[in-house]
Amino acid sequence: MAEIRIELDLPARMRDGTVLRADVYRPGGPGPWPVLLCRLPYGKQTPMMTAVLDPSAAVRRGFMVVVQDTRGRFASEGEWDPLTYEERDGHDTVRWAAALPGSNGAVGMIGGSYFGNTQWMAALSKPPELKAIAPMITWSDPDDGLWTRGGAIELGLSVPWTLLQGADTLIRRHSADLDGLVNGITALIQDFDGLADGGYGELPAGRFPAFARHDLPELGYERSRREPAWAASTRVAGRHHEVDLPTFQVGGWYDIFSQGTLDNFTAMRRAGRPATLVMGPWSHTNWRHVVGDVNFGFAANSEFMGLRGRLHDLQFDWFRRTLGDGEPPEPDTGQVLLFVMGVNQWREETEWPLSRAVDTDLHLRADGRLTPEPPSTAEPAEEFTYDPTDPVPTMGGALLLGGGLLMTDEFPPGPLDQSAVEAREDVLVFTTEALTEDVEVTGRVSVVLFAATDGPSTDWVARLCDVDENGVSRNVTDGVVRVRTAAPGEPAEHAVDLWSTSIVFRAGHRIRVQVTSSNFPRWDRNLNTGEPEHTATTPRTARQRIFHDPAHPSRIILPVVPPT
Fold first, then answer.
1. Average pLDDT, the chain
2. 3-state helix, strand, coil in the chain (%, to 5)
């Protein structure tokens, strides 16, 4: 058996004197070896980390592995301030790791979610020893999936995430006060456990009361509004051209950052950088083959990848090519590997988005129809009442709520039966006839709504669903847009970005579109008053109308891939 040598809590001094600590794993023998670096705020030995990078597996493949607690977290010194120090600390850590005994001087970075973003931030700082990064399930623009989406707050992500990270903050704060620690942790747990039973509904959503109660640094929504310069310094979007490295990017169609992964990839390709993309049917924490209530077949499992082997091994192979091992690295040509749901097959491509996909309109029509033909005569508008005190509950999707951070099923992501949602009076449903042939939709989906509300502000939520031959409707992808209304009661055109997917709607199935005004607690509720989110506490009921007539052709736009 190969020897693995481990050193725990090695100190790395940052430019301001703060010491961050890392665990280092080395193969037996003299080396030197290329280094895989992972920087995360969740604890160096958390199962979350080993699910993304198994140090022992990497060492057996001939890599030296460095896993570091980010600033202010667990064994590392400093103040926990999410996102703030990752660019400069990433730069300093890469240089330190490259100089460790046994290193060959070439560093690659790997990790997902927050520690996918730490790679981008380090790459933006351009340490010369950083040769490749492999960010997984991470965002591009924080205002498109991290802090907000379409103007609505990503409440179901930011609230439990901030509370969970608060445990280590309280342990540090009360290190010399046992009673204070017990009381603080007890109150924090009570708030976390009570989220689904009303805690998410605390107002104002834009200045969430639980954060103030525990004096916790939040994920960034409120600060990004107060400090635009800070927000700009933490963004990857718009700065990809500054990263001159090959990237291996991994995402899932039901991941909270699915579009961020795709946007990062397309930005790197657009900048002329070599980039590889893998998109599975996965959620943020589930990379197996059963997601939601759909079994996509064992080929979908990241441990199998349709006979390609383990996803981790594909990444290690790629790092071998891009980092080298005493030999010049091989040029990285990049590839695209997509899992096409419905037919449940992996497909190799050379591009994203697919140039052969054709934007195809399906029009919302009277009597709940969804047709290729636009309305040619007047049709009455559909109406519903949106009451923020009784919002449409979150039911599946590309999300990461509460228990999902702990890999439990409080708000499961993925495709789920939508019957309870579609039975509500505040959810409009538009459905095609049964399809006579398979229809593949691969690419970015959008909905154009001509809609009116009787108040100064509201939200429009749209969802694409696949209805099987038994009539079971399951969500595919969705989106939200928050609007301010200059003329209440008058129709206005709104675009809802549903992000991207790849699915074949099988013959005999139906395509469905849901339209409503809430998806809670994934997104915060619009209280329909126009008051800013950081002060709004009083809800009002809104009367909503969706138009579908020749002058107001509401529709969904699907990127349909012609059959081959």
1. 95
2. 25, 35, 40
